[in-house]
Structure formats: C-alpha cells, structure tokens
Amino acid sequence: MSNSVAVRPAPSAVLEVLHPITWFPPMWAFGCGVVSSGVPISSRWVEVIAGIVLCGPLLVATSQVVNDWFDRDVDAINEPNRPIPSGRIPGRWGLYLSFLWTAASLLVASQLGAWVFGAAVLGLVLAWMYSMPPFRLKQNGWLGNGACAITYEGFAWFTGAAVMLGGLPPWWIVTLALLYSAGAHGIMTLNDFKSIEGDIKTGVGSLPVKLGVDNAARVLCAVMAIPQVIVVALLLSWDRPIQAGIVGFVLAVQLALMVRFLRSPVERATWFSGLGVALYVSGMMASAVAVSSFGAA
C-alpha cells in the first residue's frame, strides 16, 4: 500500500478551509442591501445570485483561506487537525487557493459594476491585511475587528444596494450600512472571549486582553447598542415608527441579555452571541424594509 503524500487537496478539504459557516452574515447583509434598494428582485435576479455568491462563497471564503494560510504555524500547535497543518491541503496549496479565490472574486465583482468592484477590491485588501505580515490587523482588537465588521456588514450591505441600483446607493442606505457595521464591531469582540488564553500566549491584542475581560465586555455592549439607538432615532425622523419600534424592541431584548452577559462574560459570550446576534440582524432587516420605499420619494 502506498504511503505517498497527497499532491492536491481533496474537495472536502478545500470546502473545509473555506469555512462555509462564516458565509451567512455577509449574505444576510447583502440581502439587507437588496431590500433597502426598493428595486424588485425579479428585475435583477441574475445579479442578485451573483452578488450572494460574491459576498459569501467568494469574498468571505477568500478571507478564511488567507487567514488559515498565514496562521498555519500557530494552528499546527493549537489546532493540528485543520486542513493546512494536517497536510490535507498539502504544500503551498493554501496560498494557491488564496490567490485563486481572490482572482475569482475580482472577476465576478467586475461584472457587477464599478462601485461593487471598488468595494470588493477594498474588502480583499482588508482581508489580506487582516492576516498577512507585516500588517496582521488581527493582532489589534480595534483594527482587526473593525476590518471584519466593515467588510462582513457594511461592504456587503453596500454591495447589495449597488447591485440593484446599478450605481452608488443613496446616503440613507450608506448610513444604515455604516451604523450596523459599527455595531458589528462589538459582535466580533464576542468571539475573542473564547481565546483569551491563546491570545495572551501568542501576543494577540484582542480587546479582552487589552482592556481586561469586564471592561471589554462593557465596551462591546456599548458598541453594539449605540448605533442601534441612532438607527431608531433616524427611523423616527424618517417617519417610520413601525420599523423604529421593531428595532427598539430587539435592542431592548439585547440590553436585557447584556445585563446577564456582563455578570460572567467569558462563560456567557457564546450564549449571548447566539441570541443577541440573531436579534441584531433582525433589526438590520427591519431597517432595510423601512427605507425600501425611499427610492420612489
């Protein structure tokens, strides 16, 4: 029986390194952008499908394989069963896949208009800077989580609206996308509570490491809540009381969850992420619906 090492990765290993579970948030944000545009999906369904593929299986997948490639040495110690350190993705195939998915992302984005292409380019630059030396934005909790938040939420929302409108979305759509991106910074910080010990050992300056567990928890709660308060105020000023009430309600529930989370942040980070994030993204869609009729105004 041959003991030769694999020359090419198996499709299952490639899929694993692309981390499909991470594709949902930007695809949801893209959907919010589509809805907020007010343009019927039936009129541009081909572009909608292409945009969904771009935001999830291409752009986010690119960021995942790039991250796994540049983290391969650390993963060899902490998570040796991952596709790259385990050898299931052999040699330099992790890097080749990073280049391939980057190129595919740019190709698809180039077919969806100049604004979509520009957002994709900026998103890819941040994806590479997040993981690649000497930038390694992930080493800084403020910068790394900010890069993830703006790409996963803001750029994806912007892309959805730009695809439907065929150009630059209006200011109210961009404003909502930026506000929910700001709030998503807190969501990204939630993920850091499960890796505090490893971050300390490897020199990663996550917010729980930089600020301490309790202070980081308070900061992330404020960062999540304040943009939603502003969204409620904007929706009321735009004469959208129903959607303002929905966003206000989901925020109120989040605040109640935050009180419990703050009592034991490390133990309850995953619990709060599961419940709080679902409420947060529900508010995103309610806000998108609120402005969907603005285009006709």
UniProtKB/TrEMBL annotation:
Organism: Rhodopseudomonas palustris (strain ATCC BAA-98 / CGA009)
GO BP annotation list: chlorophyll biosynthetic process
TM region(s), chain numbering: 20-41, 48-66, 99-130, 142-165, 171-191, 216-236, 242-262, 274-296
Catalytic activity, EC: 2.5.1.62
Entry keyword annotation includes Protease: no
Main location (coarse class): membrane
Subcellular location: Membrane
KW Oxidoreductase (keyword) present: no
InterPro entries, sorted: Chl_synth (IPR006372), Prenyltransferase_related (IPR050475), UbiA_prenyltransferase (IPR000537), UbiA_sf (IPR044878)
Membrane-topology descriptor: Multi-pass membrane protein
GO molecular function: chlorophyll synthetase activity
PANTHER family: CHLOROPHYLL SYNTHASE, CHLOROPHYLL SYNTHASE, CHLOROPLASTIC
Protein name: Chlorophyll synthase ChlG
One cellular component term from this protein's GO annotations in UniProt: membrane
CDD domains: PT_UbiA_chlorophyll
Keywords on record: Cell membrane, Chlorophyll biosynthesis, Membrane, Transferase, Transmembrane, Transmembrane helix
Entry superkingdom: Bacteria
